[in-house]
Amino acid sequence: MFDLFRSRAKAVRIMLGAMLGIIALSMLVYLIPGNGMTTAADSGDQVVAEIGRSAITVGEIQQQLRNRLQNQTLPPDLAATYLPQLVNQAIAERAVAYEAEQLGFLVSDRDLAETLRSIPAANQSPDLYRQTVEQQYGTTVPDFEDNVRVKSYEDDIANIAEEGIIVTPAEVENEYRKLNEKIKLDYIGFDADKLVSTLKATPEEVSAYFARNKNFYKLPATQSIQMIVADQAKVSESIPVTDAQVLSFYNSHLDQYRTPERVHARHILLSSTNKPKDEVAKIQAQAEDLLKQLKGGANFADLAKKFSQDPGSAQKGGDLGWVSRGQMVKNFEDTVFSLKENQLSGVVTTEYGFHIIQVLEKQPPRLRTLDEVKAQIVTNLRNQSVFDRMQDLADQAHAQLVKAPKDAQQIAAKLNLSFVADPVYLPGNPLPALGKDQQVGATLMSLKPGEVSQVMQAGNKLVVLTLIANNPPHPAELSEVEAGVRKAYLSLRANEMVKAESAKAAELLKQNGDINAAAKAVGAEVKSTDFFGRTGAAQGIGSAALLTNAFDKPVGAIIGPLTVTNQTIVAKIVDRQGIDMSKLAQDRDNVVLQLKSRKASDRQLLLQDSILTDLIRRGKVKKHQAVIDRLIAQYRG
Fold first, then answer.
1. For a disulfide at 310, which of 61, 195, 269, 492, Cβ 3.0-4.6 Å?
2. pLDDT score of 296 more than 50
3. Are 46 and 627 within 8 A, CB to CB?
4. Torsion of the alpha carbons at 210, 215, 216 and 221, rounded to the nearest 10
């Protein structure tokens, strides 16, 4: 962002030495309470940390979280991990800025103004600038500009980290070899998940496994709930509608059931929009040629798919469906309504380009019959009263439940409503028949056993809920978790079998080097990868990063047993692709840049952590753990 540290002047070298000297004082120390960082619970409810005279507030951390999550919700079980990391990163950034200022580096108001010119609103008016910052960045102008300064100091430190980086020819050659060397494997794969489906477990085996692992099977607190649900669709069907009502509605709404003249058409469009004038004639000539082909018997749909430039209809063979007057531009409309069924137009010119049109069907204006629209009218009439009917039935259900909360099933049957029960509902999970409705879920949490909720709306349903009982957490009985226990037992057996078979295959392979014989001995098959490099993927196995050590082994070397992705493999390196060192010269600059970038990143992290460690040692960083704990608690719920 700012190029303040590029100079090779003596003063910069002295400051660089001072910065790098910090590394000698202390190495990496992470932001863990008790590791030398001052904590203070009484430093103010909203201050997360202090670096010198600068403070990081709860509001800043919350805004950073919102920016990162992009309107998504932080899962409660991740709050205790994610939020401290966010705080630590913010502290590290401010620590770098603090140290840079202490060493005499300065981001002046002029420098700041230059940077802010990249925001268009900042060049127009103060009010527009303020609105843009508040809406797009979710913060105030002073805080935003403070963050810009902090970021500029980070860039300055990055520049410092790059000072003096040297890449030797040997490093370049070694990196080039790593980037370009490729190997090929023969391998035997053992998939425990697939093996599970072939295994069986007796009741005795499942019971014995459960007995050995009973402490791992504990059921959380649940609730026994009952609901009476008024569903719009079901209630609507129960509302009677007479033929007389239908006829009366039809006669009073005839205009709704009149259909205008319409045609079913298709077209081919060759667009001339934004095309140079000298190309328009060529496009028109192409349209004339297509018309000639169509008149000669060519398939309209095939030509439309191949040549039409109308994105809405081309892949449908040019089909526009039914169109009526007022939906199209004038030239197109006049033509389409003048054609007879199955007749082709000439080349029609509109502001969009050149069209060839064919009418497939024509329909004159008409009044739809009562029989055609009767079902629609019945639905309309029912919809006019369904919500009042739903509310009336739900109110009746509520009144009767308050008097007899245990009779929910009988009350629902009498009112022709739905009855839903869940004896082991887990709070926070989707509600049966309702899904994850936050209002209903929150109301349920506030009820006491035996209490009845008010009538609540959940989508297109009204619901009255009764909490029957709160069930405390308890050790599970086998009958409650048998399916999960059986699955875990079979998975254990499958993994044990994979471990034994892969070890056997590896031992046989090491003895005689014959991977086909090893595979046959364990009833497996040999597969082969294509040539792959360190940054690629091994066919059938996964990322080459899982096989990094293989690139340092000779042809014929044995790999594994090794668990990669969802399988365990035993492999043999069967070939190595030679490296064309003659191409190093043309790739040298890119390789050097990659090495410098990697070294700069490593040095920047080391420098940043060392600055932070030194500031902690000097008492310049204070982290208020109690405030952080309260922040975490807010997101854990």
1. 269
2. yes
3. yes
4. 110
Residue 2: closest CA among 137, 108, 133: 108
Angle of the 203-212 helix axis to the 478-512 helix axis, nearest 10: 90
Whole-number Å distance between alpha carbons of 107 and 84: 29
Q: For residue range 103-117, what is the model confidence (pLDDT) as tens digits?
A: 676 666 676 666 666
Q: Beta strands of 513-577 (E only): which ranges?
A: 526-528, 532-533, 537-538, 542-543, 558-564, 567-577
Distance in angstroms (rounded) separating the CA atoms of residues 621 and 37: 7
Confidence category of residue 134, pLDDT binned at 50, 70, 90: low
Given a contact cutoff of 8 angstroms between Cβ atoms, the answer to whether 156 and 529 are in contact is no
pTM summary value:
0.48
Number of Cα atoms under 13 Å in the Cβ half of residue 393: 27
What does the pLDDT look like over 466-495, one tens digit per residue? 999 998 998 989 998 999 999 999 999 999
309-349 tens-digit pLDDT: 998 899 999 999 999 888 889 999 999 999 999 999 999 99
- Is residue 36 a contact partner of residue 616, using CB atoms and an 8 Å limit? yes
For 125, the token pair is: 């008016």
CA distance 373 to 252: 13
Structure tokens at 351: 């502001």
Alpha-carbon torsion, ordered 149, 150, 156, 158, to 10 deg: -150
- Six-digit token string for 196: 């599970």
- DSSP secondary structure letters along 269-325: EEE-TT--HHHHHHHHHHHHHHHHHHHTT--HHHHHHHH---TTTGGGTTEEEEEET
Q: C-alpha distances in angstroms, 53 versus 48, 49, 105?
A: 13, 10, 17
Give the separation between CA 277 and CA 280, rounded to whole angstroms.
Answer: 5
DSSP string, 427-474: TTSPBTTTBS-HHHHHHHHHPPTT-BPPPEEETTEEEEEEEEEEEPPE
Q: What is the DSSP string of 324-353?
A: ETTSS-HHHHHHHHHSPTT-EEEEEEETTE
Both tokens of 36, joined, read: 């030398």
**CA pair distance 211, 574, nearest whole angstrom:** 47
DSSP element (H, E) containing 388: helix 370-403
425-463 pLDDT tens trace: 888 788 887 887 777 778 888 889 999 999 988 888 899
Phi-psi group of 226: left, alpha or beta (phi > 0 → left; psi -120 to 50 → alpha; rest → beta)? beta
